[in-house]
What we know:
- With 113 residues, the chain is of the alpha+beta class.
- Among the domains are: 38 residues, no CATH class; 36 residues, no CATH class.
- A 3-stranded antiparallel β-sheet has the order 1-2-3.
- The chain is elongated, with a radius of gyration of 29 Å.
- It starts with 11 loop residues before the first helix and ends with a helix.
Amino acid sequence: MTCRLRGDPPTEKDVRNAIERATVGATRIEILLSESVVAEGQDRVLTLHRTWTPSRRRREIIQGMGEAQQPLRAMRTKARDGFIKAPRDAHRWLDELLFDPAQTIESLAIREG
C-alpha cells in the first residue's frame, strides 16, 4: 500500500488492494487482509458478527402474560379461497389451451384480467 498522509482517507483502490478475500456467511463476514497491510503480530482475519434482519416484518399473534397457548389460527378465508381456486383455474386453462387451437395464453390473460 502506498504511504499516505495521516489525514487522507484511503481510496477505493487502496481498500481493494488491502483485502485478499471476503467470505459472507449467514451470521458473520470474514475478511482476509493481504500480507502487505498487516503489521507484525496482527491477525490477518477480521470477523464481523451480524444478525440479518428480514426485509419484511413477520406477522404473529401476540399473547398476553399468563394466557394459555392457543392452537394455531386457521388460514384466512380470502387466502384459503385463493389457494383452492388457483389449481382449479390452472387445470381449466390448460384444458382450454390443449383442446382449443385458437386459444392462446395472451387471450386467457386478457379474459381473466
